[in-house]
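Page 42, continued from yesterday. The earlier attempt failed because a stray header line got pasted into the input along with the sequence. Redoing it now with the clean sequence only.
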Amino acid sequence: MHRSLVLLGCLALAVGCDRAKEPDARQLASRALRGVLSYPQSTLVSVSAGTDAAEVMLTARDPVERIATWFREALPLNGWQLRNEGKGADGSVSIYAEKDGRPLWLTLKPNVGGPGTTYTMIGAIIEPDSAATTPPTRQ
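This time it went through. Structure tokens are written below.
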């Protein structure tokens, strides 16, 4: 009986080790947000990612409008095209930009109860569409 428990434990360990390792959220965020700069002297709050998109939340000491102005200038300088912008009654600013078919959503909100801004950057991982490529012709 003791031998079968040891064997069962080794089998469970082997199966657990053979499981595919889940991708790291920071690596996925790096792919999804490739080519995006964060506002200088921002502090990372959180990183979350799935297989198709990632979100990075940061905070900075400056007010929303100063950070939004910086992004409006920095994004085009780095090849991003500003597509849309919106302002909320709470002082928030949302910016949508694209680069090489990749989307970027920025949402900047004033911190509650203190100075500064908390902002999120959301990017998508865009894989080339295999159906869009033309199959080779036979000769």
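Notes: The first strand starts at residue 43 and ends at 49.
Reminder to self: strip header lines before submitting.
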